[in-house]
Amino acid sequence: MSNPLEAPVAPEFTPNAPVTPNVPAPPAGLAVIDENQRTWGMIAHLSAFAYYISGIGIVLGPLIVWLSKGGPQHPFIEDQAKEALNFRYPLSCTSSPRS
To answer: What is the share, in percent, of the chain residues with pLDDT greater than 90?
Structure first.
């Protein structure tokens, strides 16, 4: 039995050992979404804040992201831009001033 007052012994360190994280592989049939696609998806949602710069930015921002970065090669960006546009379009119709 070990003494409870002794300091714990650290495992042996080898400086050139390869590091393999315990990250499971994605399930078959699912696309891997890289950091660039996540960034553009976030830009699609946050671009609606351009409303404070121009009056039509609430719809124009997600539309520009959808048309420029969306498509068959980036289905995640297309999906997120469509979601942002579908969420913000009714808001722009109901919140616009009527004269």
So the answer is: 8
